[in-house]
From TrEMBL:
<keyword id="KW-0004">4Fe-4S</keyword>
<keyword id="KW-0479">Metal-binding</keyword>
<comment type="similarity">
    <text>Belongs to the anaerobic coproporphyrinogen-III oxidase family. HemW subfamily.</text>
</comment>
<dbReference type="GO" id="GO:0005737">
    <property type="term" value="C:cytoplasm"/>
</dbReference>
<dbReference type="InterPro" id="IPR034505">
    <property type="entry name" value="Coproporphyrinogen-III_oxidase"/>
</dbReference>
<dbReference type="InterPro" id="IPR006638">
    <property type="entry name" value="Elp3/MiaA/NifB-like_rSAM"/>
</dbReference>
<dbReference type="Pfam" id="PF04055">
    <property type="entry name" value="Radical_SAM"/>
</dbReference>
<feature type="domain" description="Radical SAM core">
    <location>
        <begin position="9"/>
        <end position="249"/>
    </location>
</feature>
<dbReference type="InterPro" id="IPR058240">
    <property type="entry name" value="rSAM_sf"/>
</dbReference>
<dbReference type="GO" id="GO:0006779">
    <property type="term" value="P:porphyrin-containing compound biosynthetic process"/>
</dbReference>
<dbReference type="GO" id="GO:0004109">
    <property type="term" value="F:coproporphyrinogen oxidase activity"/>
</dbReference>
<dbReference type="GO" id="GO:0051539">
    <property type="term" value="F:4 iron, 4 sulfur cluster binding"/>
</dbReference>
<keyword id="KW-0949">S-adenosyl-L-methionine</keyword>
<dbReference type="InterPro" id="IPR013785">
    <property type="entry name" value="Aldolase_TIM"/>
</dbReference>
<comment type="function">
    <text>Probably acts as a heme chaperone, transferring heme to an unknown acceptor. Binds one molecule of heme per monomer, possibly covalently. Binds 1 [4Fe-4S] cluster. The cluster is coordinated with 3 cysteines and an exchangeable S-adenosyl-L-methionine.</text>
</comment>
<dbReference type="InterPro" id="IPR007197">
    <property type="entry name" value="rSAM"/>
</dbReference>
<keyword id="KW-0143">Chaperone</keyword>
Length: 399
């Protein structure tokens, strides 16, 4: 069931759109996302996916009547969105523009594998209004890429970055650390290779081996050995130091940018609890407290779509919602989530925004080197480098 038509958001929040493209050339052994390689339940044609996505946008327009706000950010994620023909991505961006409109300064990002783009395809996307591309570099070390089952060669990254620059797109590089068999020197080599390409933005995520993945099965069988947590911590600290020395500043635990303007605004919107609509199979959406078209107050809620692409397409084609489940959020839920998300940001959060500010808990975290003591004295909770490694524990202590 789609949300009841809403009136103006209260208070007015930014609005973004996430478009999930569930296609990949192969399924990497570590991947736990809702993605499908050929033969794994894809649509009969990718045109079906584009039509279904546009159909869901039409449903969203009806559901948000009275609260249609131009999208300030649009993010095409996956999967590998650039497995689609550029014309398909352009058609879906046009669908977003027709449904909600785009803010004049909208950030429009697509994820891409380095071997899934050409100079021509990136130029087409830029001409249509895309402003940013996020490349899944992951590593610059061949044996690490092989363990991750990534299909690109390291040299493809430099070529893809050059093409993106020539098209006028901002560039982000995504890295993964803690791959089985990866040494600290391997990780430093990947960092140096990424920095040498001078991207605007870098993300670095610790590998989490999920039980249901192929890599999870390899781990259980003793075929691979997980990198220990102390080494992963050393890798994170190496990333922060090398990126800082190269002129990047962290703005979220796993993200660094050259300037505040080059931070990923779409992800910042998630961390600051702005509104967004997720399009596509398995996509999540969130709308905060608002006034309905009937003048009644409506609480915050999130919902997510059915995962299987064929089921998603069939529902949209039948004129029914692709929603799988919905979760209403109480004021207490929102307060807890606010701490979980905002504490990850470099700007931190005011002490008084805690649901239950407890001086002893804050003092203990400062004493343990998790929170910045000077910032805490001025009324702001801000993680130290050590604190970024222990962010989840800090949230538990504060809530």
């Amino acid at each position: 069931m789609l949300p009841a038509p809403a009136g103006p958001a209260t208070p007015m929040r930014d609005f973004g759109v996430y478009v999930h493209v569930p296609f990949c050339a192969v399924r990497c052994g570590y991947c736990d996302f809702n993605t499908y390689a050929p033969g794994e339940g894809e649509f009969s044609s990718r045109d079906d996916y584009v039509g279904a996505a546009l159909g869901e946008m039409a449903q969203a327009r009806a559901a948000m009547a009275g609260d249609l706000r131009p999208a300030r950010t649009v993010f095409f994620g996956g999967g590998t969105p650039t497995m689609l023909d550029p014309a398909a991505l352009v058609a879906m961006l046009e669908g977003v523009r027709d449904t909600w409109g785009l803010a004049p300064d909208a950030e429009v990002t697509t994820e891409a594998n380095p071997d899934s783009v050409t100079a021509a395809s990136l130029s087409t996307l830029a001409s249509a209004g895309f402003t940013r591309v996020s490349f899944g570099m992951q590593s610059a070390v061949p044996h690490v890429l092989a363990t991750l089952e990534r299909t690109h060669r390291p040299q493809n990254v430099a070529l893809a970055v050059r093409w993106a620059r020539e098209a006028g797109l901002a560039v982000s590089l995504d890295l993964i650390y803690g791959t089985p068999g990866e040494s600290l020197d391997d990780w430093r080599a990947s960092l140096d290779a990424a920095i040498a390409l001078e991207p605007d933005h870098v993300s670095a995520y610790a590998l989490v081996i999920e039980p249901g993945t192929r890599m999870g099965r390899q781990l259980r069988a003793g075929q691979i050995e997980a990198v220990d947590l102390d080494t992963q911590a050393d890798m994170y600290e190496a990333a922060d130091a090398r990126l800082r020395d190269a002129g990047y500043s962290w703005y979220e635990v796993s993200n660094w940018a050259r300037t505040p303007e080059q931070a990923c605004r779409h992800n910042v919107a998630y961390w600051t609890s702005q509104d967004w609509w997720g399009i596509g199979p398995g996509a999540h959406s969130y709308l905060g407290p608002r006034i309905g078209a009937d003048g009644a107050e409506r609480g915050a809620e999130r919902w997510w779509n059915v995962k299987l692409p064929r089921v998603y397409a069939a529902r949209v084609a039948a004129g029914t919602s692709p929603e799988a489940e919905r979760e209403p959020l109480t004021a207490a839920d929102l307060a807890l989530e606010s701490v979980m998300l905002r504490l990850r940001l470099a700007q931190g959060m005011p002490v008084m925004d805690l649901p239950d500010p407890r001086a002893e808990a804050i003092a203990a975290l400062v004493g343990d080197g998790v929170l910045d003591g000077r910032a805490a004295l001025s009324g702001t909770l801000r993680l130290t480098v050590r604190g970024r490694l222990l962010a989840d524990a800090a949230v538990r202590a504060l809530t």
